[in-house]
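Question: I have long wanted to understand how a fold can be written as tokens. Here is the record:
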Amino acid sequence: MTRKKKTRSLADKVQIRTGRRKDYKKWRHENPEQVAPSRRFVQKKRQQRKLQAARKLARQQQGQPLEVHPSHDAGDNKSSDDSSQSDD
């Protein structure tokens, strides 16, 4: 005896479905208010995003700060001095 697999899919809850994917896609496109995600799913994703943001912040605070454009005082001064002398 085989059992039917439990699913949380919205596809099984749709009454007008004829068994074809394109029919369901069309119905879903025409009725967006009925296809909203469940509260459980929304809460789960919100919690995941909070955890991800907290982990990212912890990583940023733990890491070493790096300068995007480190200043090379010796190299910059020579090139600017040379260009100013040639202009005069």
